[in-house]
Amino acid sequence: MFLPETAIFCITLLVYGAILLLLIYYVLTLADLECDYLNAQECCRRLNFWVIPKFGSHALLCGLLLLGGHWIMFLLNLPMVLWLFYELHRQRRDSLGVYDPVDIHSRGLLKVHLRNCMIYLGYYFVMFFVGLYCLISSLIKGDPIKRYEDDEIITDF
Amino acid sequence: MSAYNQNFVPPAAGTANGNQGSSLVNGLPGAVPHHQQQPPPSAVAPASAQQYLQQKAQQQQQQFQQPPAQPYPGISSNSSLPPPPLQFNSNIANKFLPPSSTSANNGGPPPSTLPQHLRPPTANGPTSLTNGSNGAPSANSSRTASPGLIGAPQLGGLPPMPHNPQFAHGAPLPTAVPQQSQSVASLTSNMHQMNLHRTNGPSANSQPQQQQLPPQQQQKQQQQQLPLANPMAGPVMGSKPPNLNPSTSRVIGGPPTVGGVQPAPVLAAGQRIMYGGAPGSNEQQSQNQQNNNLQRAAPPPGAGTAWPPSLPKAAVPGIPPPMQTQQPQAQSAPFAQQQPQNTAQSAPFAPPQQYQYGQAYQQPLHQPPLPQQQQQHQPPPPTGMFGAQPSSTPLQYQSQPPPPSMQSQGQHPYAQPQPTSGPPQLGAPVPLNVAQQGFSRLWGQDTIDLMQNRHILSPATLPAPKVVLHNQFHESINCSPSIMRCTVTKIPETNSLLQKSRLPLGIVIHPFRDVNNLPVIQCINIVRCRLCRTYINPFVYFVDSKMWKCNLCYRVNELPEDFQFDPATKTYGDVTRRPEVRSSTIEFIAPSEYMLRPPQPAMYLFLFDVSIIAQQSGYLEAACSVLNRHLDEMPGDARTQVGFICYDSFVHFYSMAEGLNQPHEMTLLDIDDPFLPRPDSLLVNLKECKELVRDLLKLLPKRFAHTHDPGSALGAALQVAFKLMQSSGGRITVFQACLPNKGPGALEPREDPNNRSAKDVAHLNPATDFYKRFALECSGYQIACDLFLMNQQYSDMATISGISKHSGGCVHHFPLYQKTKQHMVDSFRMCFKRYLTRKIGFEAVMRIRCTRGLQVHTFHGNFFVRSTDLLSLPNVNPDAGYGMQISYEESLTDVKTICFQAALLYTNSEGERRIRVHTVCLPVTSSLPEVMHSADTEAIIGLLSKMAVDRSIASNLSDARDAFINATIDVFNAFKIAQNLPSGQSGQLIAPRSLALMPLYILGLLKHPAFRVGTSTRLDDRVYAMDCMKTLPLDQLMKFVYPELYKIDGLIYHARNSNASTTEEDDEEDPLPELPRLQLSAEHLDSRSIFLMDCGQLIMLYVGLNVPPDVLEAVLGISSTAELGDYVYGLPHIVSAEYDILQRFLLRLNYDKPYSALVQIIRDTSTAKGQFIERLTDDRSESSLSYYEFLQHIRAQVK
């Protein structure tokens, strides 16, 4: 094991927090587009910029959890990573990204994107607390107050 | 054609086109002389006063005591009688006027002071004569109080008269005919009712050719009309109101009520006269024809009250059912009697053969007026739609008694005659079930068993269904169906109702269509809703004189002070006189708030592919010579700039700086990182450097004649073109002849030629995002890219066309272009000429607004959707159509009507910022059968084809094909449920009349190059066909999907006949006979006839093997079919009556098209026959079903 358990969960928590903030930014940007405060091209350019970092960070996190041997956390994260991967790779060859300015306004795609963002938000929100729980439990697992150590010291003494 | 714009403010600046007649004749914007003149104010006043009256009266319902608001100087000066003070007088005066008084110039009755729509038709007589002889058949023209129109010199020699707003399409008005005197009493006493029925009244008059006069009267009238019968009112111009589909005003029925008791006897008489009195001699026939012509200018008798004129068969509400259900033997009786009429109208020239499917000809016998109607390109009577019917299969209508609400509303999607009180009286004597059938047909609610009626296509161009709004004023001014059409003419109340009907909801729109007499307004502030920014339109509600309620968001807005001012009359008064409120298609000259930057000049940049393949095809020569010839006709002002770039493996620039006496060429070798060799003089002012530009155009073809460079660096050329145009925006025209294979955006061939007929078509998607990205960038800088692809081999249209798709451009495709193929060169020249000279709008945006509760869901066409309802169109051209799918946001239970408004903001070539606004208003209904009956098949097909293209790109082709079939099955299923028909299999396939043609068109689509499988189709051709589906305006799309087939024997017969009888007759006055449209099946072909198929950009003449030599001689100048080659294009020039009439027929077919179609002559035994046969989509082919089989397939699926 190259990293202590707590460190892994700290990273997990940080990644979740960052993605949550990013998703709030996504929702705001898409809402701007819906309200016509933003040009579709500009909006998609902004959103597409963050698609890869989002996917990459989550994929790295997944790998980290796997290496750390946290199987349950890994399995919880895997579906989202697979979905993001699928989303990236189902694009057609002429597509300008996950958010394509040309058809974001047609076939209710904007609504779909907004809905997806909301689902992501919910997922990461839950996962954030799961991560928090894991962190705390990993912190208290090793008897952080070291009561028994003290006892031992006393008895030894 | 918006050269006919008139500015309303200042009135002195108002321009008028004095030559509307000629403009209509050639239909080409460039060819129209523009006479501009200032409208005489006196002529302006009466028109607007009348309109004011009309509007006013409508609102207040005070018809009787309406004092004349304005004197009628223009009229009283030329009318023999002084204007009567009260409208009663005028009615009476008119009533007793002999017919001659209305038809003669000087004897015109004084205009009634009544608002137009309240007047008995006679009172409108002279106005409509003006209108008719004027030959300006535009509803807009007359409605909008356009000073120019009124001030225009009347071709008929009539002095300026007020235009009757009601009588659109240059429709003649009723003359005073004796019958009228009978009805006038009831007319005047029933004014109120009259108002009610005015819905129908005006259109009754707008179909003057429908009327039937007693022979002697006809003759008399004819003589009187003769001086008036303007040769310009000939078939071509009179026949095509370019901006308004005639069907908008096709409602009839006022008369029967007004005339209360009369209709029946009169009708009977009319019938008798029509059939019994049908003259047998040639002379009489020609007179009839001439009469038909004249009747365009002649008013219908009996003030249109005698019977609803627009319906041949159903004109006689009581009578038609028996006629419709006639058994063969019953038909044979009238046949002999009617034969002369028949031959006069549509008889083929070989009488012994003409009856082999004689019923097809015979049916029109019951509709004597039909030919003229078709000739005016007015929609045929719906009853005639299923008229062409073999006698062996009697018509079987499933008559559905209309719901009671229908009776009161009298709604009828197909603009059927709808006598509100007439039919019960008329129908009383006939047996009940027949009467019911008649009813349901009258209300357009009848159904039809498709299995029994295989010959379902109407003999004429099908009308767009009429929108019925229960508001006569609104109906008369609703947006023309040729501009905006919805897939249903009654909007379902809720989404669930729409889902039940299984119909697609959407609009197809042709916003920049060339229209005549477009009202143009210049005002300081354009009145718009504060909340939703809707432009004020005729369908808003005026709370009082200071407030108006938006019809889209229902906000109550204030009216600015100056809106009270009527620019036409320069008076303060009623807001309803404003042109904004009087026309649903209008153009504003935008003030500076609508500009983000000064309006851009016209900028044209041409990119020529000069690789070796391009040089072999030799397109450059043709392109340069056309450009050279039409350099002056390109739209633009003094600031117009042009530039040229050629590219092979490198990019060649041409500098035409001042002081140079020859253009300088600069070659850019670094195509991976292209840059501009010099900042200026690559785009030069056309006016200043015209000589240099001409030199260059002469030099270019020679310069690259001997090139051997196989490369084509399209991507690099586009990038430098973008840099060149970046600062101003404009149009880039790309000529590409091969696959771009160098530099950025290089492509690889993807198509497998052996796989062209495979079931799964791959590579419909672009191969790279380069072109799309480029187009989006262009769109941001107001640059549009148009593509002319003249490829020899696979050039990946799917990828390259991205530059046009997302930048608002257009795509033209000339596959296998070779300079040695003269017909291709001609076709390209015509296309390119139209392209260069047509109108253009720069830096345009279009916004579609709809009533709260609805929203636009998906857009189809070439543009970039910038925000939810805003389309960015760097360029807009008059040949581009768009489609939108509509979805529900909330239900529409509390509204009666909904509106769609399309506003197109653009910079015209003169650097003026303009806004063109179209508004269409549709009623809302809560009944499923009503929705189904109000469906508009053509619009549905237009929308379905666009959706299918999306589907085949997003998914695959077989999905799209399945979707077509499923859509058809679903619709018929839904109709079965709506009608409560027993479920389960039966031998029938019941369809509402409105949707009866859907399977036919769907089959046409399935066999279309865009969607067919099993037949070898080049990938580029398929992609181009798909692109056309997305971008063609609806009228052309329908020809593209289901070509029109005619048997031209009728023309030849007509030509010979009229020749023999009336040699001294001016040919121009001779109307074209109406040819029935044939279904696309080989069963209609025969070896002794010539057939004409109009596929849009190609017209094919199919010459049978045994066509009589004299016909061949007269039409084609050959003595036997053996003299025809395999591939013959273009008609030879021959002097003969038959040839003339064929030319006129072709002219008429080409009238609506952007440029005239190429004519191909196909001999029965030629190798080109396959091209003709493959378009016979009703027939079975190796890999596809015949129409009947397709119907059976549908029927088996309908539960």
CATH architecture of the domain at 603-838 in chain B, please? 3-Layer(aba) Sandwich
Shape estimate of chain B: globular
CATH topology of the domain at 603-838 in chain B: Rossmann fold
- Radius of gyration of chain B over alpha carbons? 29 Å
Could you give a short account of the major beta sheet of chain B?
9 strands, mixed
Most extensive chain contact?
Answer: A-B, 20 and 24 residues
Fraction of residues in helix of chain B: 25-40%
Measured between the Cα atoms of the first and last residue of chain A, the distance is 34 Å
Low-confidence stretches of chain B: 1-432, 1062-1067
Mean pLDDT of chain A: 84
Give the CATH level 1 class of the domain at 603-838 in chain B: Alpha Beta
Using only C-alpha atoms, the radius of gyration of chain A works out to 21 Å
Which spans of chain A have pLDDT < 50 for at least 5 consecutive residues?
none
- The CATH homologous superfamily of the domain at 603-838 in chain B is termed von Willebrand factor, type A domain
Strand content bin of chain A = under 5%
What's the average pLDDT of chain B? Answer: 67
Calculate the terminal CA-CA distance of chain B, rounded to whole Å. 51 Å
